[in-house]
Amino acid sequence: MIIGGSLHEREDIALLDAYARARAATERAALIIVPRYPKEAADVARHAHERGFDAVLKSALAGASRPPRGRAEILIVDTVGELGRLYAAADVAFVGGSLYFRGANKGGHNLMEPAILAVPVLFGPYNFSFKETVEDLLAADAGILVRDEHELAAQITGLAVNEQRRHELGNRAQGVVRAGQGATARNYELLVELLWAVRLGSGRLPAPSFDRKIPRPANDLDSPL
Q1: Would you place residue 62 in the very low, low, confident or very high pLDDT band (cuts 50, 70, 90)?
Q2: What residues form DSSP beta bridges with 3?
Q3: What topology is assigned to 2-180 in CATH?
């Protein structure tokens, strides 16, 4: 199962073309597209039909008399709040908002959502908002950077036919996310130590509000408040 999450304009077309190539390599390939904005789902469905694919909106399946047609039909998600659950059902994930330039302050979406689920993750070159995550994934050979639609098609096809590589990438991606967990708690501990060092050295904290909120370090319970 291939999933495109939080796709923006033109990224659905790139993924549909990549899927066509993957489908030619293996009939087991299936596709779910989750546009960033549900209102764009109708356009995504039109693009799919123009390429000869059957496609169905997820909202149309609610109460429908016929069941979905599985791999024979592309699922386009026009509902909200389901991306995490759909990532969990995927074998390969392309995270959108990253393949084409959208502005200096707009770069990518959350790569950790599929990565923590051990789903191999692909992303484009415009990931300003998640720079550290991208660097960590690439350093661990745990994610795939695709620079254009041609590289996207090649990598999607390669992963679709190579189960072992999918598992290896997914496991490494999950390891990268797990290695970074607990950072908030560690930073908090360092901040507490710094604030107590400042207080004990100068007689006051840099911000009075901390006086009421910062607990005493465990090894300094007798220090005066």
Answers
A1: confident
A2: 32, 93
A3: Rossmann fold (3.40.50)
